[in-house]
Amino acid sequence: MFKNTVVIPLDGSEYSARILPAVHKHLPTTENRLILLRVCKDSPGMVGIPQSPAAAELNTPVYRSHRDAVYAQHPIYASQIQESQRAEVTTELSEIVGGLKTLGYEVAVEVAFGDPAEEIVNFVTLTDVDLIAMATHGRTGLNKLLFGNVGQCAGSTFTSVQALSTLEVKF
Predict the structure, then answer these.
(1) Spatial contact of 62 and 48, defined as CB atoms under 8 Å apart
(2) Chain centroid to CA 95: how far?
(3) CA–CA separation, 23 vs 29, rounded Å?
(4) What is the pLDDT confidence band of residue 58, given thresholds at 50, 70 and 90?
(5) Model-level pTM?
């Protein structure tokens, strides 16, 4: 049986999870599969700056700081940080996933890295998605200018690019 794919961006706040009762109320479990999407801050990793000569006449390389020496010997790559964050997000969302599965939904968790609005757009563009369901503050005026509005940014991109529905609940 065909199921609609519904992306639910959750940023880790209680506020973003407010969409979940609306999803259950409006989207039948037998007709929809859910993807919980978390966008994490991108990390460049932690590696030491390469050694440089101590002086022009000496051929002895030195590090600029103790931190660089430590990270040169034991670097932490961006991919390692991302895998760690993926595991943390999966653990953090396990209770929500369990609850949705108990209700009868098919649920998956996806993690992206970067700007939330851009990554939601990228994910939906690259995935066969039928609906985005997200809570929004519905900011306008100065608040919107100062704090932005991920829901409107993502929603406006899709209304002009493709026929994609958005279940957006203002609280």
Answers:
(1) no
(2) 18
(3) 9
(4) low
(5) 0.72
Q: Which residue has the tokens 């609609």?
A: 4
Tokens for 61? 């390389």
Say how far apart CA 123 and CA 67 lie, in whole Å: 36
Alpha-carbon distance values, 83 to 7, 39, 119 (Å): 21, 13, 17
Neighbouring C-beta atoms of residue 57, cutoff 10 Å: 6
pLDDT digits (tens, 9 = 90+) for 88-99: 999 999 999 999
Q: What is the mean pLDDT of the chain?
A: 78
Q: By C-alpha distance, which of 146, 137, 140 is closest to 11?
A: 137
Task: Calculate ∠ Cα 46-48-51, nearest 5°.
Answer: 170
Report the candidate in 122, 160, 155 with the shortest Cα–Cα distance to residue 139: 155
State the residue for tokens 């929809």: 32
Q: Are 31 and 23 in contact (CB under 8 A)?
A: no
Enter the tokens of residue 79. Answer: 């991919």
